[in-house]
Structure formats: C-alpha cells, structure tokens
Amino acid sequence: MKKFIIYFTLGLLVMSTIAFMKVESKTTKTADVEAYLTTLNGSKTYTLQIAEAMPSDKYDFRPTDSVRSFGEQMAHIAMSSKFLVDMFVKGEPMPSQEDFAAAAKMEKEMGASKEACIKALTEAYDLIAATYENMSDDQLAETFVVAFDPKQPSFPKEKAFQFISEHNAHHRGQALVALRMQGIKSPDYKLY
C-alpha cells in the first residue's frame, strides 16, 4: 500500500508539473504562414468560384429587399477586406460616416459588374496574403482596437486575419443563398 501511495503521489506530481510547464511550440513562423496561406487560398478559390458561377445578368439579384444583391455581397467582401486590413493591421483610423456612405455607393456600382467584383476579390485576397506573409511574429503580436465596438476591445493583430476570414465566410454564405435561389448549382465547398 505504501508503494501505491508513493507511486500515486509521484504520478500526481509529474502530471501537475507537466500541466503547468510552459510548452514551447514546435512550429515555426514559416509553417504558420504556409498553413494560413493554404487556408486563405482555399477561401479565395471558393469565393471566386461562387462569383464566377453567377451569370453577369443576375449580379443584381437580391433574395429580399432588405439585403445586398449577389454582386453587392461580392463587392462587400472585397472592399471590407481591404478596410479591415487597413484599420486592424495597418492602424489606419476609423472611416468617417461620409467614407462609409461613399463605400456603400461604390459597393453598389462595383456589385453591378461581375468582372469588377472578380478583379476586386482577387486583389483583396492577394492583399490579405501579402500583408500576413510580410508580418513578423512581433508585428502579429501587436494589438489593435476594434474602434466600431463601443467596448473598444483590443486583440493581437494575428486575430485580425481570423476576423477577416470569418467576415468573408459570413457574406459568402449569403451569396450562396442567392446563387441557389437562382437555381444555380453551387461550387463544392472548399475548406482549404
């Protein structure tokens, strides 16, 4: 029984020590960049396939009056990606109400053109990739403030890229609904 208590106590001690030790990451920045860029490239490919699937004359289709048209969704993904990189990563100030109004107008104009949307989407995804790829670990660890949230939370800049991806997936999902409502088979989902 004494041996059991001794081994049990030693086991608990070892497990406790392991649980509280700082475990160093075996991944490198290069591996992290490659993993992120692989996922981002899958998102880019999938988004562009969705944009390509909708005929040009249906880019103005709107599932209901209260939402963006298909083309406006595509334009919004492109324009907001640049906006979020500029604000969250590059530290540019929060746009004014006039800037937002001009952006909304530009979304409508761009959203009417399949070619303009595809060009803007390609440029936006390329901007995200280049920005991430060229940041050091220290830069990714710097913080940014979410200026449009009344609580003004701050996060590491690396989290900004996660936010941008989530935002893009949200609007891509809305575009998929519009595509399907037009009876168009959607491209197969791509996770990476």
The residue-averaged pLDDT reads 87
* Cα distance spanning the termini: 54 Å
Low-confidence stretches: 4-27
In N-to-C order, the SSE pattern is: HHHHHHEEH
Count of helix runs: 7
What does this structure look like?
With 192 residues, this protein is mainly alpha-helical. Helix content is 67%, strand content 3%. The chain has 7 helices and 2 strands; from the N terminus they run ααααααββα. Strands 1-2 form a two-stranded antiparallel ribbon. Helix 2 packs antiparallel against helix 5 and helix 3 (70-89) runs antiparallel to helix 7 (157-181). The longest helix has 25 residues, at 29-53. It is globular, with a radius of gyration of 22 Å. The protein starts with a helix and ends in an 11-residue tail after the last helix. Residues 4-27 have low confidence and may be disordered.
Break the fold down into its secondary structure elements and pairings.
Elements: H1 2-20, H2 29-53, H3 70-89, H4 97-111, H5 114-133, H6 137-141, E1 143-145, E2 154-156, H7 157-181
Antiparallel strand pairs: 1-2
Helix pairs in contact: 2-5, 2-7, 3-4, 3-5, 3-7
